[in-house]
Amino acid sequence: MFSRKQEAAPWPHGAELVAGGRNSGSGSTFSVFGPDIAITGDVTASADLHVDGRIEGDIVCQTLVQGEGSEITGAICAQSARLAGTVRGSIDAGHLTILKSARILGDVSYDALTIEQGAEVDGRFAHHSARNAESSDEGVLISLVN
Description:
Largest sheet: 8 strands, parallel
Strand content: over 45%
Order of helices and strands: EEEEEEEEEEEEEEEEH
Number of helices: 1
Distance between the termini: 78 Å
Structural class: mainly beta
């Protein structure tokens, strides 16, 4: 009578949401902020994040995927980031991909960087090794040899 089994709601691209926010195929946790979500405050997650809405605050996570129509106002710190929307704030990422639909207003530090033609970036770029050398107390000398 009341034992009707509840089915998982279908996700885009054929994925299904299962208990704990896990995608049944990948085994990694993720959190999705849809286009109707607006958050004011910092977001810190051990999970990977997919943002399609608006966030006003700093973001710290393993992997960030930003949707094309989304807006982030605040600093981003992630091991990996794939940005397609608007970011107003600094970005610190290991592997950073800036897609052609992205608009970045802030400084960027990175280990590996990919920028698609058509992306807009208004800020300074610094590779992590250069930033670490500048902040060293030992006065590291960097020379480029051809």
